[in-house]
């Protein structure tokens, strides 16, 4: 057969090249982050005012100090605050994801549900999560429920829309192929329809996770006594700018970490993304 | 299999595929309905290679979808192997215009999909799958994913995935229509030798007169919308055929005869 154009397993030759490409990408990315630090440091030295812009060293030493020392004095260490925020995000994210998967699945399979829910989603989607805060306080008080509900309300529409779009995008012929190969409707639903939608759903989860970290500050504006968002707000009230930067850096790192986990999941389920 | 009624309704020997007075119309947004097929009759003998030829929009794909069990006629009767078609099933292997492999499975897993989904995977079947991959020339690409294969390789993997089910009938919907000329010629050669060896009943949809002449025992010409069987012609060229036959006078004459029927006023 002369149309065997692609070598069957190009691993032997391509693997080192891919590894080199990966190393190169990481180095260039790191250089970009380093550039930001350099600009920051130079600007801080020029401005020479800790409250306006602390230097990188001041921020780092403040971060290290607050890792073990509680802030405020009767509060938690930065580690514990990070854990509190992560707990809130994961609770809201997991509940929102579960509800979004079910709602998106129902919309994709039942026409009435789709026509009923779609306008509601379209109308509520552009609303910023912060707009819901007073309402959530009225409904759930100032405890954990209101904070988790705020994250939930941000995650739900994103996951719902991603699930619906992913299921709609499954080619009918792929389902037909499965059925004509002898698979039952149920086997086809699980192993072809849902499986085929999975990568796009995970991409939706990544966007929702990003949104959840974006709204953590808003969530922790609700009478919080802990959490990274609370630390940032508190530090802002007392003009402790280095600590504001510590909090921001913590959120950036945590957000990056969780996105990385979802990216690993995506790589595991989608061979074309490897 | 499970989608077919138990007792044969007609003599299986007489025809592998029997289409009687099949009509089908679709609802469209503008008009209330559009007739795609109107009173189509067709009999295909076991082991026959029949090409469905017609202009685009004549309903040949609709007819194939009805044979496959993806769609149902408004009226008329469709029997495959003596059984009324009530849904898709592994007794009718379907090859689409795009190969439609499962992108998250390797070539090997794609080929084993049917037996695995039906819970029939045995060591003997694995051996057969390995043999099939050899037949289609993909033994070395067994662990590759579909996106790592060339267009022609994907089509051959789709062949193997269908053949592992031992279908009585192969339904092919312009399977080589979107391929470049060289790959297409290769796959036509491959299909000719495959049919020569296995003698599976094949219903092959195409709009290419040359392809129909090269591959088919008979060519059913459908008229434009709504689709009706305009004429069924014997190709009358000797078997086994090879790709080189396309240059012989007999081939050109047969091709012209089919083209004249296709282009004649309805």
Question: What would your notes on this structure say?
Answer:
- The complex is a heterodimer of chains A (274) and B (266).
- Chain A has 274 residues and is mostly helical.
- Chain A has two domains: 11-48; 54-273, MetI-like fold, CATH 1.10.3720.
- Helix content of chain A is 77%, strand content 0%.
- In chain A, helix 3 crosses helix 4, helix 6 packs across helix 8 (185-214) and helix 8 runs antiparallel to helix 11.
- The two termini of chain A are 28 Å apart.
- Mean pLDDT of chain A is 89; it is low at 1-7.
- In chain B, helix 4 packs antiparallel against helix 5 and helix 5 packs parallel to helix 6.
- Chain B contains eight helices and ten strands.
- Chain B has helices at residues 60-68, 107-111, 113-117, 123-135, 151-163, 181-198, 209-215, 249-263, and strands spanning 17-26, 34-44, 49-53, 75-80, 83-84, 92-95, 169-173, 201-206, 218-222, 229-234.
- Chain B has one domain (46-61, 87-261): P-loop containing nucleotide triphosphate hydrolases (Rossmann fold), CATH 3.40.50.
- Chain B has a six-stranded mixed β-sheet with strand order 6-7-8-3-9-10, sandwiched between helices. In chain B, strands 2-1-4-5 form a four-stranded antiparallel β-sheet, covered by helices on one side.
- The A-B interface holds A 1-6, 8-10, 171, 173-174, 176-184, 187-188, 191-192, 195-196, 198, 269-272 and B 1, 68-70, 87-90, 92-94, 96, 98, 100, 102-104, 113-115, 117-118, 137, 140-145, 147-153, 156, 161-162, 165, 182-183, 186-187, 190.
């Amino acid at each position: 057969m002369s149309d065997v154009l692609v070598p069957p397993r190009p691993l032997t030759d391509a693997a080192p090249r891919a590894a080199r490409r990966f190393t190169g990408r990481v180095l260039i990315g790191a250089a970009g982050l380093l550039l930001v630090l350099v600009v920051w440091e130079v600007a801080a030295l020029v401005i020479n005012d800790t409250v306006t812009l602390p230097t990188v060293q001041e921020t780092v030493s403040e971060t290290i100090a607050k890792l073990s020392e509680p802030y405020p004095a009767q509060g938690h260490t930065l580690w514990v605050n990070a854990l509190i925020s992560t707990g809130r995000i994961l609770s809201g994210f997991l509940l929102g994801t579960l509800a979004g998967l079910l709602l998106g699945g129902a919309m994709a399979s039942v026409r009435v549900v789709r026509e009923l829910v779609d306008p509601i989603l379209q109308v509520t989607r552009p609303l910023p999560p912060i707009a819901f805060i007073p309402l959530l306080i009225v409904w759930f008080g100032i405890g954990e429920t209101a904070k988790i509900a705020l994250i939930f309300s941000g995650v739900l529409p994103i996951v719902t829309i991603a699930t619906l779009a992913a299921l709609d995008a499954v080619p009918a012929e792929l389902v037909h192929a499965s059925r004509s190969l002898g698979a039952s409707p149920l086997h086809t639903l699980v192993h072809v329809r849902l499986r085929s939608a999975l990568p796009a759903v995970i991409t939706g989860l990544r966007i929702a996770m990003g949104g959840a970290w974006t709204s953590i500050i808003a969530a922790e504006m609700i009478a919080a006594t802990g959490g990274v968002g609370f630390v940032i707000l508190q530090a802002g009230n007392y003009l402790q700018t280095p600590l504001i930067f510590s909090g921001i850096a913590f959120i950036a790192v945590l957000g990056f970490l969780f996105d990385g986990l979802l990216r690993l999941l995506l790589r595991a389920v989608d061979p074309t993304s490897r | 299999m499970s989608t077919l009624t138990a007792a044969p309704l007609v003599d299986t020997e007489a025809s592998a595929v029997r289409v009687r007075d099949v009509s089908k119309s679709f609802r469209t947004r503008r008009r209330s309905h559009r007739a795609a097929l109107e009173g189509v009759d067709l009999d295909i003998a076991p082991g026959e290679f029949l090409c469905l030829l017609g202009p685009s929009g004549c309903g040949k794909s609709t007819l194939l979808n009805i044979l496959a069990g993806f769609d149902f006629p408004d009226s008329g009767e469709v029997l495959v192997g003596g059984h009324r078609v009530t849904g898709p099933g592994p007794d009718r292997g379907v090859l689409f215009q795009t190969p439609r492999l499962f992108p998250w499975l390797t070539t090997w897993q794609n080929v084993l999909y049917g037996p695995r989904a039906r819970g029939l995977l045995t060591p003997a079947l694995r051996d057969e799958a390995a043999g099939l991959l050899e037949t289609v020339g993909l033994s070395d690409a067994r662990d590759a994913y579909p996106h790592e294969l060339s267009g022609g390789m994907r089509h051959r993997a789709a062949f193997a995935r269908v053949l592992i089910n031992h279908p009585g009938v192969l339904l092919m919907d312009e399977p080589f229509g979107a391929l470049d000329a060289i790959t297409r010629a290769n796959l036509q050669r491959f299909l000719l030798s495959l049919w020569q060896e296995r003698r599976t009943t094949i219903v092959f949809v195409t709009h290419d007169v040359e392809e129909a002449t090269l591959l088919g025992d008979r060519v059913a010409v459908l008229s434009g919308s709504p689709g009706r069987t305009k004429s069924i012609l014997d190709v009358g060229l000797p078997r086994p055929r090879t790709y080189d036959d396309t240059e012989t006078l007999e081939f050109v004459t047969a091709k012209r005869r089919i083209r004249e029927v296709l282009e004649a006023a309805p």
